[in-house]
Write a structure and sequence with these properties.
mainly alpha; single chain; 434 Repressor (Amino-terminal Domain)
Length: 110
């Protein structure tokens, strides 16, 4: 990866990476740990100070279990699926264990 630049050039990719990280509720340090990179690199990619390679994007998406299709929709400004996923995650996080068991059983019946 090329050296970081003093010049900040925010791209749709850098904004999308940040949005995905925030949707996932992760800090820059947490996503860096998942990616096996320094948190400074995450910061520089999100702020347009570092080149974002296709491999970095693929690894990032895989670490968050996000599809390439959702990524492309986000880049187009159509992130309905990601918003739905985020809302579902929040609902699940707030469920009691009893309700979570019912939801789990229901989802496995499909």
């Amino acid at each position: 990866m090329p050296k970081r630049s003093r010049l900040k050039i925010e791209s749709k990719e850098s904004r999308a990476l940040k949005k995905l990280r925030l949707f996932s509720g992760l800090s820059q340090r947490e996503i860096a740990r998942r990616l096996g990179v320094n948190s400074t690199l995450v910061n520089h990619t999100e702020n347009g100070r570092a080149y974002i390679s296709p491999d970095y994007i693929t690894h990032f998406l895989n670490s968050l279990s996000i599809s390439k299709n959702d990524w492309n929709e986000l880049l187009k400004g159509k992130d309905k699926n990601l918003s739905k996923k985020d809302e579902c995650k929040k609902i699940i996080d707030e469920l009691s264990i009893e309700k979570l068991d019912v939801g789990y059983s229901f989802s496995n019946s499909f």
